[in-house]
Amino acid sequence: MKKWILAAALCCNVAVADVAVIVHPSNGDSLDKDSISRIFLNKAKAFPSGTQAEPVALAEGQAATDEFNGKVLNKTAAQLTAFWSKLVFTGKGQPPTALGSDAEVVSAVAGNPGAIGYVDASAVNDSVRVVATF
Amino acid sequence: MKTKLAILSVAGLLAAPTMADIQINGFANLIAGMTLDDDESVYDYDSDFSFDPASVFGLQVRGEVSDKLSATAQLVGRGRDDYDADFEWAYMTYVLNNNVNISAGRLRMPLFKYSASLDIGYSYHWLTPPDAVYGIDFNNIDGVRVDYMNYSGDWEYGAQFTVGRVEADTTISGTPAALELEDVVAVSFEATRDWFSARTLLARGKTSAANPDFDTFVGGLAQYGAFIPTASTAAEGFSVNEDTGTFFEVAVDIDKYDWFVGAEFTQTEVDGSVIADNKAWYVTAGMRFGKFTPHITYEVEEADNGDQLGLIAALPATIATGDAVVDATWNGAAGTAGIYQTAAGIAAQQNLDVSAVTVGLRYDVEPGFALKTDVTWYSDDLNDLNDATLLKVGVNYTF
Questions:
Q1: Looking at this predicted complex, what is its ipTM?
Q2: Which residue of chain B is at minimal alpha-carbon distance from A82?
C-alpha cells in the first residue's frame, strides 16, 4: 500500500508540477481553495485571523501561473483579464503585483508577514510556509 | 481648451514617477458600422460606414493618497463627440473597512448590470450592449456612492447606495433638451454564486427637462387654461418640471463558461410628464468555443403613451371663443398646426414599440484584445419604414 502511494506521488510529480501557495512563516492561518481564490480575486481583503492580505502573483508565462489560475481561480487568462478590467475601471480593485520568477515571489513572501503568493512547488524553501498545494 | 487642460494634467501625473502608487489603465473600442440599405438609419448609423456612434477611447489614472484614500480620474473621448476628451469620472474613494468603500465626486451610476464596465467593451460579448435597455441619456452622477461587499458560504453579495444629481443632454420630441435629475437616490443589490448571478436596482429622482420650443408650447397650452379648464391640466401633465421619476432594474445571469444566458429588464416612469412609461428587456445567450464566442440577443423596448393620450382626449379639438386670434391659435389654420394638433402630435410621438435581434461573434486574440462583429435586425412595430439592418465590426482593447 505504502509503495503504491509512493508510486502515485512519483507519477504525478513527473506529470504536472504542483503549485504551492505560500505565506510568511509567522502566518498561522489555514486556507482552503475558496479562501485563497477570494484573496487573489479581491473579494476578501484579510486572512481569517484579520491580518490584511497582500497577494503577490506570478507573471504570465511562468509554469505555476496557468496552473494556479486554472486550478484555484478557475479562470483562463482571457477570463482573468476580463475580470480585472471590470474591477480596475470601476475603481473596485487592482490585480495583484506580478513578479517575474518563483524566486522573487518566495523572497517577497518571506519578507512580508501579510503576503501570500504561489510558486512551482519545487521552488519552496524554509523561508516561507506552504498553506496548500494544488 | 478642455482637452488641452486634460492632457496637460494627465501628462503632469505621468511625469511624476516619484509619486508612489499611480496606476494607469486604458481602453479602446474602435467600432465601425453601417446599415445595409441606402435609406435606413438606426442608432445614429446610416448606410455610410462610420466610426463615430460607438467608438470610445479612455485613459484612467488612479493615485493612492494613502492606504485608505485614492483618487481616480477617467479621461474619455467619444467618436460621437468628435473625440473631445472629457473627464467623465473624477472621484475619491475612501476604504472604510474590508467591506465598505465610500466614493465621492463624479462617478458611474450602477443603473444596469454592465454599467460599471459600460465603456470596457472587452468585458462583455457584444460590441455594444443592447440599446433597448442601455440607450439612456446619462450614466454618471455627481454625488456619493457607498459600496458594500461581502460573502457568506458560497455566496458573494454586495449592495450600493448612491445619492446625487445628474445633468445630461436629452431630447424632447426629437429636439435637444437639458435633462436634470435632482435628489437622486438609488439602491442596488447583487448576489453571485459560482455560475449564477442576479442584481436589482431601484432609483428615484426629481426630473426636469426643457428646451425653448417645448417651453413655448407648454406655456401656450397653459394660457388656454383661461378658456379650457383641461388645458391647464394638460400643460402640467406635459411639462417635465420636478416630476418624480422612478427607475427599476433587474438582471439574472447563468454562466457555465461553455455557454451562458442572461436577461435584464428595466422600467422607467416619470409621473405627470410628457415622458411615457417605458419598459425594456433583453435576453442573450452564447457559447464559448476556445477563442470564439458566438452569441444571439433579442431586445424589446416599449413606451406606453396612454397617460399623454388621455390628456389630449380631454381637450376639445376646436374652440369658438369669438376671438379670431385665440381660436385660430388653438384650432390651427390651413397649413399651420394649432396648439391642439401640436399637443396631439407630441402625445402620439411618445408611443414606442421596437425590437431587435442581434447575432454576433467575438474572437479573443489575446488577453486584453478581442475582435468582434455583430449584425442587428431592428424592427419598429409602429412604423415599418424605420426597420433597418445594421452591421458592426470592431476591436476592444484594454491595458
A1: 0.71
A2: B123
